[in-house]
Design a protein that fits this description.
Distance between the termini: 52 Å
Number of domains: 1
Oligomer: single chain
Strand content: under 5%
Helix content: over 70%
Radius of gyration: 17 Å
Number of strands: 0
Number of helices: 6
Length: about 120
């Protein structure tokens, strides 16, 4: 039973974050883009306050993969860069810490576009 517990934690936390977003879409006038932006900002704020890392430690990928985890990565990168480079780190830390994920998203998005040939669905 102990080997399946991390998967259950991951599923519950990731599913809860997705369920909250779906409720916001259904019950408010917020657009999905605004909700996604709110998730990133929430991750930055919770990461800057040191409240998000314990959730990642407990839930693993269920907390680090959603957009709140991306915001936390940005906050962590800025915090580390500021401690090493001073004020300049506030401008470069987020880019440095998230560069691998952003590059992977661009590369795999391009690869999928080449394979599946996206087009206008109204034709």
């Amino acid at each position: 039973m102990e080997t399946i517990l991390p998967y259950i934690k991951c599923f519950v936390v990731g599913g809860l974050l997705c369920a909250i977003a779906q409720i916001l879409i259904d019950k408010t006038m917020l657009t999905p883009a605004r909700i996604l932006t709110c998730y990133v900002v929430a991750g930055v704020l919770l990461g800057a306050l040191g409240l998000y890392q314990p959730l990642i430690d407990w839930a693993g990928a269920g907390a680090s993969i959603p957009l709140t985890g991306f915001g936390n990565t940005l906050a962590k990168g800025v915090r580390e860069a500021v401690s090493q480079k001073g004020l300049l780190g506030a401008f470069t830390g987020g880019f440095t810490s998230a560069a691998g994920g952003i590059c992977a998203a661009i590369f795999f998005g391009y690869l999928v576009a080449l394979v599946f040939r996206p087009g206008d669905k109204n034709k």
